[in-house]
Design brief:
This protein is of the alpha/beta class. The protein is built from 15 helices and twelve strands. Strands 2-1-3-4-5-11 form a six-stranded parallel β-sheet. A six-stranded mixed β-sheet has the order 7-6-8-9-10-12, sandwiched between helices. InterPro entries: Homeodomain-like_sf, HTH_AraC, LacI/GalR-like_sensor, Peripla_BP_I, XylR_PBP1.
C-alpha cells in the first residue's frame, strides 16, 4: 500500500490556555481520522516562540492569530498558513490573504446572556480585560455584550479591572469587590474567560456576596482547572475549539494539495453551556435561607452540620429548618447532602481522582455512604456514573441532567 506523503507542519499556540490546547486536540483528531501524514513541530513546553520561524524549513503552519505578534511574524510567510482566532464585527480587522477559522464571539456572549435571562435575572454586567492589542478578542466579546444590552434597552455595566500580577493582586481584588458591591442586586455577570470568572467568584466569597442568589456568574472556556480551583462550581460556555482545530487542519490539508483558500473565513459557534451552581439563580424568598445556602455552598464538603449552619445565620436550628421547609421543601441536611453530591459528580466527571479520594474530598464519611447516596439519588454507583459521563458525547453540558431540587432522603447529621 502506498503511504501518503508526509508534510512538516508547525503549530504555533501557547498551550498554557485551554483554548489553545483544545485547538491542538482538534488538529490531532483530524489527523487520527484521516490518512494525512504530518510531522508536527511544537516547542517542548508547548509555547509559541517565533524566533527563526521565517527560516523554518517546513510545509505549512497553523497559528493563533489572536496574538498580533504572531500575525505580524507570519504576514510574509513563504509556506501556507491557516489562522485561528476570534471573530470580528468589523470585516477590516480580519487578517488579509489568509484562511481564518474563528470562534464566534457574538454567539458565545449571546448564549451566556440568554442563559442568565432564562434564569430570571433582571440585570446584567460584564467582567472583561484591559484594552490591549493582545486582548482584541476580549474587546470583541465586550462589544457583543454592549450590542445585546442596547438591543434590550438595558444599562450595560462593564468592568475591565487589572491584568493579573502578583504585585497588584491585592489592589485588583479590592477594586473588583468595590465594583461588585456597587452593582444593583441580583445581577448576572458574564466573565470574558473562566479565569476572570474565578477571580469574580473569589471576590464574592471574600466580600460575603452570595453566589448565585445575589451574583450569578458564568465564564467562557469550560476549563477543568478553573473549576477545580473554585469552591462553588462554575458555569461556563463551551467553545467549539476542537471543531476549530479540525477545520483548520482540513483547510491546510487542502492548501497542501493545491487549493487556494486565502479568502476563506469560517465562524465556529459554541457547543453549549456546562450549567453548574454559579449561575443557578433562584428568586430567594427569605434572607436566612439565602445566607444558609451561601454558607453550605462553600463548606458542605468540609463536614458541616445543620447546627453550624444555624450558628452562621444566627437563628435557632428549628427556625432555620422551618424556613427551609417552607421555601425549598427540604431540610438543611438535604441541602448539605445535595451539594456534596454535586461536588462528587463534578470530580468524577474530571476522571482524575479515585472513588475513595472523591468520597473524602466531598465530605462523605465513608465510601459506602457515598455509594448509597448515588444509588438512591441517581440510580447507579459512583463508578457507573463516572463511566457514563466520560462516554457521553452529544448533550449540551457533557453531563447527565442535574436535579437541583431533588428531594434527598433523610439521614442523620452524624452520617
Amino acid at each position: 500500500m502506498k503511504m501518503p506523503n508526509s508534510h512538516r507542519i508547525a503549530l504555533l499556540f501557547n498551550a498554557n490556555k485551554i483554548y489553545d490546547r483544545e485547538i491542538i486536540a482538534g488538529v490531532a483528531s483530524y489527523l487520527s481520522s484521516t490518512r494525512v501524514s504530518w510531522d508536527l513541530f511544537l516547542e517542548e513546553d508547548f509555547r509559541a516562540r517565533l524566533h527563526g520561524i521565517e527560516s523554518w524549513q517546513g510545509d505549512g503552519i497553523i497559528a493563533d492569530f489572536d496574538d498580533p505578534v504572531v500575525c505580524e511574524a507570519l504576514s510574509h510567510s513563504r509556506v501556507p498558513v491557516v489562522a485561528v482566532g476570534g471573530s470580528y464585527e468589523n470585516e477590516a480587522h480580519y487578517p488579509k490573504a489568509v484562511p481564518y477559522v474563528a470562534t464566534d464571539n457574538f454567539k458565545l456572549i449571546k448564549l451566556a446572556y440568554d442563559h442568565l435571562i432564562e434564569a430570571g435575572l433582571p440585570r446584567f454586567a460584564f467582567f472583561s480585560l484591559p484594552e490591549a492589542p493582545e486582548n482584541r478578542w476580549a474587546q470583541e466579546r465586550e462589544n457583543a455584550f454592549l450590542q445585546l444590552m442596547k438591543r434590550d434597552r438595558l444599562t450595560a455595566e462593564i468592568y475591565r479591572g487589572q491584568i493579573t500580577s502578583a504585585p497588584s493582586w491585592d489592589e485588583a481584588v479590592q477594586q473588583l469587590i468595590k465594583w461588585l458591591e456597587g452593582l444593583p442586586k441580583p445581577v448576572g455577570i458574564i466573565a470574558v474567560t473562566d479565569a476572570r470568572a474565578r477571580q469574580l467568584l473569589q471576590a464574592c466569597l471574600i466580600a460575603g456576596i452570595a453566589v448565585p442568589e445575589q451574583v450569578a456568574l458564568i465564564g467562557i472556556d469550560n476549563d477543568p482547572l478553573a473549576r477545580m480551583l473554585t469552591r462553588i462550581p462554575l458555569s461556563s460556555v463551551m467553545q467549539g475549539t476542537e471543531e476549530m482545530g479540525r477545520t483548520a487542519a482540513h483547510l491546510l490539508h487542502q492548501m497542501l494539495n493545491g487549493a487556494r483558500l486565502s479568502t476563506t473565513r469560517i465562524l465556529v459557534p459554541p457547543v453549549g453551556i456546562n450549567v453548574l451552581t454559579s449561575s443557578r439563580y433562584e428568586t430567594p424568598k427569605h434572607p436566612h435561607v439565602m445566607q444558609a445556602r451561601h454558607f453550605i455552598r462553600q463548606y458542605a464538603c468540609q463536614g458541616i452540620k445543620t447546627e453550624q449552619v444555624a450558628d452562621y445565620v444566627g437563628i435557632s436550628r428549628s427556625s432555620l429548618e422551618s424556613y427551609f421547609r417552607q421555601e425549598l421543601g427540604r431540610s438543611v441536611h438535604d441541602e448539605i447532602l445535595h451539594f456534596k453530591l454535586e461536588a462528587a459528580k463534578a470530580m468524577l466527571t474530571l476522571g482524575q481522582s479515585s472513588i475513595a479520594d472523591v468520597a473524602v474530598s466531598c465530605g462523605f464519611t465513608t465510601i459506602q455512604y457515598m455509594h448509597a447516596v448515588f444509588k438512591r439519588e441517581l440510580g447507579c454507583t459512583p463508578r457507573k456514573y463516572q463511566e457514563s459521563v466520560l462516554q457521553t458525547d452529544g448533550n449540551a453540558t457533557g453531563l447527565p441532567p442535574s436535579h437541583p431540587h431533588t428531594q434527598l432522603a433523610e439521614q442523620s447529621d452524624d452520617e
